[in-house]
Amino acid sequence: MKIDYKLNDRFDIVFFVSVLLLILFGLAAIYSSTANHPNASQNFNKQLVFAIISLVIFFVIYTLPEQAFKNMAVPVYAFSLFLLIVVLIAGKTVYGAKSWLDFGPVGFQPSEFAKIGAILGISYWISYKERDINNIKDIAIAIGIGFLPALLILLEPDTGTSIIFIILTISIVFWSGISLFALFVVLSPLIVTFASLLGTIYFIASLFAVIIALFIFKRDLFNSIAIFMLNLGASFFFEYGFRLLKPHQQKRIETFINPYADPLGAGYNALQAKLAIGSGGIWGKGFMQGNQTQLRFIPEQWTDFIYCVIGEEFGFVGSIIVLLLFLMVFLRLLHFASISKDKFGSLVIIGTLTLYFSHFAINIGMNLGITPVIGIPLPFLSYGGSSLLVNMILAGIVMSIYKNRKLHT
Amino acid sequence: MKEQVFGRDVRRRILYVIIISFFIVSFIQLFNMQVLQGSIYTVKANENSIKPVYLTAPRGILYDRNNNILVGNEPSFTLRITPDKYDTSLNRYLETILGLEKGYINGLLEKNRRMSPYVPIRIAKNVDYKVIAWYEENAEKLPGVDYVIETRRDYSFGVRGSHIFGYLREINKSQMDKMTGYSLGDEVGYAGIEKNYESVLRGEKGIRYLLVDSHQKTIGRYNSGKSDIAPIKGYDLILTLDKYTQQVAESLFTDKRGALVAIEPSTGEILAMVSSPMYDLENFSSMYFPKVWKELNEDEDKPLFNRATMSIYSPGSTFKMVPAIAGLEEGIITEKTRFFCNGGYYFGDRFFKCLHYHSNTDLVTSIEKSCNAYYYQLALKIGLDNWSKYAAKFGFGRKTGIDIGEETSGLLPTVQYYENAFGKGRWPKGILLSLGIGQGELSVTPLQLAQFTALLANYGKSAKPHLVKGILKNGKFRGIEPQYFDIGISRGSFDIVRHAMYLVVNGAGTATNIRLPDIKIAGKTGTAQNPHGDDHSIFIGFAPYENPKIAVAVVVENAGYGSTVAAPIARDVIKAYLNGHVHGDNKIIKNEIAAGVSKIEN
Questions:
Q1: Above 70 in pLDDT, residue A261?
Q2: DSSP H or E stretch at residue B375
Q3: What is the pLDDT of residues B279-335, one digit of tens each?
Q4: How far out from the chain centre does Cα A67 lie?
């Protein structure tokens, strides 16, 4: 076993520099949108402190031996679940969701920490002693590991974050080598359930689609009927569970599916976001010069609508640079996952990629008016200590796995 | 298994395609928005936009136990300045017309310098209608000045209740960090019921959507106001107070310092509560809050202080029922036990005085005539442990838990207390003699005294004293269940002591001057020595004797004997509650409230 000690062989400069630049862009945008703000003028300083702490933690994690992550997978996952239960009982309600644990001056969102737990947990289960990922029982457990925290987060209720966990789980299972048919069995109940929320016609159409797919797969009759019943059962089970929710929780799920039902709530922000970005033009209005940002048309712009600040003040050029930096991060991650010979490591990297990308896509989509408004932060840029810390911890784990990749043959 | 298991490379390509396609879509959308349509968006951004303006909800109204309004709401004019357009050379002119001090406006502008110059600043609240008429005529000469109609508290219902209701103030920075849903300029309850029931009273803010240009200048209403959300008025509170009794009690304290608390014995409901001198809540709703506050705060009579719950006094002779009950309950004395009074009692070489020569006195006479010598000797017999044990049973030495925050626990000395002060076993026994007649270190609040009286009246059963009976939610009354308790003392002991209290007023006792032909009052006078000046006049009493409906404690500072000043006040309050009742019509005047609200909204 020979290890090459060239720097770039142990540490991917392109990935690291891209992440660093994204954090700097975020700091600039936070500064611009909070300076002189009556309540939020301290946010820049807070985020700066968090950025420095996150970087230190990134390097600490980078130095950890590879075995460490496998060893901590189960305890970290179990502790995440514990915290998610604690927050449901003793959490502080912020914006209608019971998602914060308060420790005096420091607040903390267990759902952020659970992202690390879920990625490590699912990856560990699948890679443990070369499990057969096409065995129904093993798939079910792998999915259960990811959906359990999703369910607890849905109860807070934080629909947006809960969806991230579902995407995360499916993506890791997908990467593990599951057969197309097995993936279909896993995904179809989710799609049918989602369709049932949109309306009866969508529900029936999705059931037809399932039947057609079953014909294409040419499975025996017993299996096909079983899968069809599973689809039907899942949607009815969800419908039943939905009715058990309190009215305000039901309303949250409904507005999530159709945000334009509330044009002055979520729709107001979407409209203002488009105005801010569009009016930025090619070169932007300049740092701290965006009137939409400076006049605070969008409340709390430094969290979920931070991309508008970039769009308005740095224009098309700035927006594209940020997009390209993200693209760089994603492509490097995809590359790491492909070359990693250790299954656990490869799955953890894909989990991280999915986490970053799903946040990115939902957030950018919402800012550009392509997708519905779902309150999800933009990785590395949005204001928020927990989110930045978790993203950097995962980056550290990824870089450490990359460093040790040659230990496996 | 023969289904197509595809390799890692295929999966990598699938993810690659997903990532790249999202980038292409985002790129096209950005190009479209910023390059192709950038100029259109720029015009739109400069032209108009929707801005939500939050409307404060009218606060809940306070009613008395018979649904009479105690504190309401009324519309008032607030004059504002928008710094962006305002010309500071108008300062002096405006200050003169509004009667403001020189430099006041400049100070306000300076204070708000870091805020957006497009957001209006309130410069005067509750502005006279004449000033608004003048403004309407001269509006074009006054750029950047405007007025809005807001609600303010209306205290014109004949009850002052300064210490009960509490007041409102603009929220400060540290409170804003602690409470959610508030913004600068919002008012928040700072004392009394307004503070303790803030979350119930405040209601929900409404939103008005305005069309504004990029300089926040209003150019119209969004969707003709159809999308606006009307504010939801806070929930009303039904208080335990009786408006008429409260009014009578307040009037009886004109020119006097002291406090009064009247409680319904069986429920702990406070029927009247006065702390005098009072202050006018009206003054607190102006913009001159700091000035008003300073004047009141520096007043020697301490009007801001709630004497009913915060001031501590020696209970004096009104406390004598405690050692009496302790002696009876512990079997140390019986009703027939007599102690000799020769105008006082020798303890060691010191003579402790009594007011009169009572000769051989039994328990009932000792209360009726208020013999001190009896209690010097009784206290020595029951000892300090029993003395403080029974005083604690009656709630002395700890807060009653009344539902307004400001309260002190007073001081109930115990063996431990004196041992800490003098050393173990070294405290002088002479202390006990003073404590026996309610003097010495013992100190109590008028509220504790009233609770004590309620317990005497109702045989040791009552509920935690409280001021709020329930909440009126959308016209439906939801009662707040009082916390009942029983201090566990035998009825026999109460019978003896209550009979003696009856004789205080209706026998040959110390307060026969307040005897009434139609109402049987039982009570006890007290005269508390006061190291800082003249004695305090104290009286506790309840009525009707057989079936008490009201228990009152009265303390009048530096007024001498209990019988001469405090007792007549108690009598008049009892009379007001039991006889002179002007009840409300038990209907809440909904139309009146609704009219007030709609006036404010428009």
A1: no
A2: helix B372-393
A3: 888 877 665 566 777 777 787 778 888 999 999 999 999 999 999 999 999 999 999
A4: 25
Identify residue B498 by its one-letter amino acid code. R
Tell me if residue A238 falls in helix, strand or coil: helix
Nearest to B246 by CA among B70, B122, B5, B398: B70
Determine contact, residues A125/A142, Cβ cutoff 8 Å.
yes
Contacts of B15 in chain A (CB under 8 A): 334, 350, 353
Which chain A residue's Cα is nearest to B212? Answer: A297
Q: Which two tokens stand for residue A158?
A: 């934080």
Residue B19 to residue A357, Cβ atoms within 8 A? yes
Chain A residues with CB inside 8 Å of B49's CB? 272, 275, 292, 297
CA A298 – CA A360 distance, rounded (Å): 20
- Token pair for residue B322? 């405690």
The whole-angstrom separation of Cα B311 and Cα A135 is: 77
For residues A76-91, give the mean pLDDT: 90
Q: Are B433 and B380 in contact (CB under 8 A)?
A: yes
- Contact call for residues A402 and A340 (beta carbons, < 8 A): yes
> So what CATH class is B48-68+157-239?
alpha beta
The model's confidence at residue B139, banded by pLDDT at 50, 70 and 90, is: confident
Domains of chain B, by residue range, sit at 48-68+157-239, 75-149, 273-284+305-583
Contact A264 B50 (CB under 8 A): yes
**Hey, are the CB atoms on B38 and A281 less than 8 Å from each other?**
yes
| Residue B464: partners with Cβ closer than 8 Å, 6 or more residues away | B268, B400, B401, B402, B482, B483, B485
* Residue whose tokens read 């040659």: A406
| CA neighbours closer than 13 Å in the CB half-sphere of residue B510 | 31
The answer to whether the CB of B126 falls within 8 A of the CB of B74 is: no
Q: Give the distance, in angstroms, between the CA of residue A184 and the centroid of all CA atoms in the same chain.
A: 22
Residues in chain B closer than 8 A to A182 (CB atoms):
3
Locate the domains of chain A by residue range.
Answer: 7-404
**Whether the domain at B48-68+157-239 and the domain at B75-149 fall into the same CATH topology:** yes
Taking residue B4's Cβ as centre, other Cβ atoms within 10 Å add up to 8
Shortest distance, CA B143 to any CA of chain A (angstroms)? 21
Nearest CA to CA, how far is A277 from chain B (Å)?
7
Q: How far apart are CA B157 and CA B152, in angstroms?
A: 14
pTM across the whole model: 0.62
Domain B273-284+305-583 has CATH 2.170.190.11: no
Q: What is the pLDDT of residue B19?
A: 93
B198-237 pLDDT per residue, tens: 989 998 888 888 777 656 667 778 777 777 888 888 999 9
**Eight-class DSSP state of B588:** -
Best A275, A340, A360, A378 residue to mutate vs chain B (most B CBs within 10 Å): A275
Contact by Cβ (8 Å): B497, B367 = yes
Distance from A266 to chain B by nearest Cα, in Å?
13
CA separation for the pair A358, A354 (Å, rounded): 6
DSSP assignment of A80-118: HHHHHHHHHHHPEEETTEEEEEEETTEEE-HHHHHHHHH
Q: Searching chain B, which residue's CA lies closest to the CA of residue A262?
A: B227
- The residues, ordered by sequence, that sit 6+ positions from A85 with a Cβ below 8 Å of its Cβ are A152
Task: Report residue A399 as tokens.
Answer: 């870089």
Q: End-to-end CA distance of chain B: give it in Å, rounded.
A: 74
Beta-bridged to residue A101, according to DSSP, are: A108
CATH superfamily of B75-149: Penicillin-binding protein 2a (Domain 2) (3.90.1310.10)
Task: State how far residue A178 is from chain B, nearest Cα, in angstroms.
Answer: 7
Cβ of A279 and B42 within 8 Å? yes
Mutate to test the interface with A, among B4, B15, B111, B228 (most CBs of A within 10 A): B15
Question: DSSP string covering A177-228, please?
Answer: T--HHHHHHHHHHHHHHHHHHH-HHHHHHHHHHHHHHHHHHT--HHHHHHHH
